[in-house]
Amino acid sequence: MDERISQTVALDDRVVVVTGGGGAIGGAVCRLFAESGANVVVADILVDRVDEVVAAVEESGRRAVGLVADLTSRDGIGELVTSVDRSFGRVDVLVNAVGEHLSTAGAFQDSHEGDWQALYESNLLHVFRACHAFVPGMIERGWGRIVNFSSVEGIRAAPALAVYAAFKRGVDGFTKSLAVDLARHSVLVNAIAVDKTRSYQVDHYELPEPYASLTGNWIPVGRYGEPEDIARIVLFLGSGLNTWITGQTVIADGGTLSAGGWYRTPERWTNQPLLVQYFEPLEENQNRPPMLR
Ligand SMILES: NC(=O)c1ccc[n+]([C@@H]2O[C@H](COP(=O)([O-])OP(=O)(O)OC[C@H]3O[C@@H](n4cnc5c(N)ncnc54)[C@H](O)[C@@H]3O)[C@@H](O)[C@H]2O)c1
Fold first, then answer.
1. Separation of alpha carbons 10 and 185, rounded Å
2. How far is the CA of 22 from the centre of ligand 1 (A)?
């Protein structure tokens, strides 16, 4: 990293806690913060993932503490607090990356209260609990950064996932108000609304041809997001580089939300998705009506 930038990032010996730190995005965040000089607490429910990320952090010469716990439970967050108290004694940057739709897709009228509760615990309640546990220390030290994870699906619609989408939007609302409350303590709170980024829980990215080469039809940047794309945004929001942005949800989606209902074909854009293949430069498509050429 450029020396002037690394001085501004100023993460040396800062302590970063990442919930879901064994995940695709959480793991990339742990590695990037470690490379930038931070010590890291990697907290996740899956031991193999925790071990892998802890090893990567240690390889970069920083201290890592792994915690295997169910962070959607009160006890899990309690274990995280104990682990932090015993290891580093403080948290400077809190990244809340646990969150899933938990395969609950389906008609809302067929869903059950148990589904809603599980979605609440995975996507919103654990964010409340983790912030509640670590904000007092940040206020006391007069510096802190919190990065929460929402989703573009909390902003646009998520068909068959109304309750998940509602809790992701809840993350944005909580982030905004907490940010305003904490701003004068130099504790900055932001969220990232992700879309189309390779991860463990979203596994449909390896498509056969011709589908793989059509990715650019619906993701303006022309590719899926990598966890490192998101980690760099977290590094900005969660470090000394960011001194002025708080209460915002940064949309990190390769342009999908801005494109809305527009799709790019090799030859042009269309807002009629059923015509996407009609715009492929194929022999059989050459006789399109004049307005569609
Ligand atoms: N990848 C995307 O395109 C995308 C889209 C929208 C939102 N998001 C959000 O980004 C965040 C990061 O997800 P990701 O994409 O890296 O997914 P991921 O599946 O790769 O990582 C999530 C991690 O959270 C851990 N986890 C799940 N439940 C847990 C629990 N109860 N206690 C402790 N750990 C638990 C999992 O073991 C996993 O390692 C999530 O909040 C997700 O909702 C991602």
1. 18
2. 9
Task: Calculate Rg over the CA atoms of the chain.
Answer: 21
Q: What is the pLDDT of residue 3?
A: 64
Give me 126's structure tokens.
């654990």
Domain count, the chain: 2
Residue 156 sits in the same domain as residue 128: yes
pTM over 0.90: yes
User: Cα(78) to centroid of ligand 1, in Å?
Assistant: 20
278 is catalytic: no
Strand partners, 289: none
* CATH assignment at residue 124: 3.40.50.720
Same domain? 280 vs 149 = no
Inform me whether the pLDDT recorded for 7 exceeds 70. no
Q: Is the beta carbon of 98 within 6 A of some atom in ligand 1? A: yes
Give mean pLDDT, residues 274-291.
84
Residue type at position 167: F
Question: Are residue 291 and residue 172 in the same domain, yes or no?
Answer: no
Which of 199, 230, 256 for mutating ligand 1's site (highest number of atoms within 8 Å of CB)?
Answer: 199
Give residue 186's domain range: 3-260
H or E element at residue 122: none
Same domain, 164 and 279: no
Mutate to test the pocket of ligand 1, among 122, 161, 201 (most ligand atoms within 8 A of CB): 201
Distance from C-alpha of 288 to C-alpha of 284, rounded to nearest angstrom:
9
